Amino acid sequence: MNSHDLEKWDKEYVWHPFTQMKTYRESKPLIIERGEGSYLFDVEGNRYLDGYASLWVNVHGHNEPELNNALIEQVEKVAHSTLLGSANVPSILLAKKLAEITPGHLSKVFYSDTGSAAVEISLKVAYQYWKNIDPVKYQHKNKFVSLNEAYHGDTVGAVSVGGMDLFHRIFKPLLFERIPTPSPYTYRMTEYGDQEAVKNYCIDELEKLLQDQAEEIAGLIIEPLVQGAAGIITHPPGFLIAVEQLCKKYNILLICDEVAVGFGRTGTLFACEQEDVIPDIMCIGKGITGGYMPLAATIMTEQIFNSFLGEPEEHKTFYHGHTYTGNQLACALALKNIELIERRDLVKDIQKKAKQLSEKLQSLYELPIVGDVRQRGLMIGIEIVKDRQTKEPFTIQENIVSSIIQNARENGLIIRELGPVITMMPILSMSEKELDIMVETVYRAIQEVSILELPTTYRHYGLIEVVDS
Fold it and tell me: DSSP letter string over 293-322?
């Protein structure tokens, strides 16, 4: 088996997620063989800084000895047994730990294996909660509110509460109705004023909606602080807590989707902590096992859980479960991951590095096609525009953002784009030096692509590209 055979078989047999396979099969694929710390190595021995945390999941680095040992210790006991009608040790210990570290009185843990499933569970629980309480009084509470450009996963329920037309429009006939509300995308909403004015506009619109339709709404789902897949849209301070207050006022369950932003990514263990928000339901995933195994959880209050208690003939049971729910290997890794986060004071370290990174990122504004740089903790989005004044994006055909990503890869950095936005999502334990390398590599990639691929109306003065007026 050699790299040529692997490439051939990959293109012949593997269908990659979120990937146009026609384009993929025309290019040379990146085939990863191993990892070490902040780096990944391909089958040809090339080294890449993992600036995407292997899809936002890696916490302590690749091939982390303590996580490796936790997996080995558990697999020598048992790899899996069902949680349907029986229990296992790691899932019990992890549920207890999650109840201790999540905000407020979230205390009932329902396991799954992906963030999408965690969201799907939250929607089903929220819907059934009202029916279990009083199916007559709450017969119309069947809908969910979510933000414009929301992304909550790929399963049909999760897509139904999504608001990303590019990803979701093809499936519209399959989806249940959602109620959209404006998202505070400050960079693209300057007609309303500064970020405070944008926040107030969005909250006012949400309250109008709730005043009219609260009796129909079972829950509101939100990505706290940052809408990740939408292009790292960072919400203005105070937006999240204002949403929570409206949910309480109008008797609507608040669901916080912390799948992407949880486990330290935004600078606190959970993003909603930054505004002292306590949701009724929280969805977690991605970083929960440190990037080792699939695991997710939906965590609810005692009040919600109690509404599902009853005699068998009442049919209040939550009829949901997956084969690998509460898998021992994944739960054992999650326990060790949380232990390492606490023992290594990782959240405090992230706060320090995020401040340093913020200063470094300002250099990107030297490049005229950089329209906006958004950051919350170690989540970074760089919006690329053709014209900084009009904020006009490049077309797909111009291929500028993809070329920047490819240039960075050729220079040893793995990152990805989300439409016109370059996203950097470094491993949380990445060193300050490695973070500097990441930003410098992105700077050079933007600069070099600008020089090579933009029209000749661009003049180049040293490191800075200036557009002819």
Answer: S--EEEEEEHHHHHTT---GGG--S-----
| DSSP line for 93-122 | HHHHHHHHHSSTTEEEEEEESSHHHHHHHH
Query: What are the tens digits of pLDDT across the range 198-230?
Result: 999 999 999 999 999 999 999 999 999 999 999
Residues 262, 286 contacting (CB under 8 angstroms): yes
Q: Is the whole-model pTM more than 0.90?
A: yes
What crossing angle do the helices spanning 346-361 and 432-453 adopt, rounded to 10°? Answer: 30
3, two tokens: 């790299």
What are the E-state strand segments in 157-295? Answer: 178-181, 217-222, 226-227, 233-234, 253-257, 281-284
SS3 (DSSP) at 379: strand
- Please enumerate in sequence order all residues whose Cβ is within 8 A of that of 221, keeping only pairs 6 or more positions apart, or say none: 119, 122, 123, 144, 145, 146, 150, 152, 161, 255, 256, 257
Taking the C-alpha atoms of residue 368 and residue 376, their distance in angstroms, rounded to an integer, is 23
- Tell which residue, 47, 4, 19, has the closest CA to residue 414: 47
pLDDT tens figures, 326-351: 999 999 999 999 999 999 999 999 99
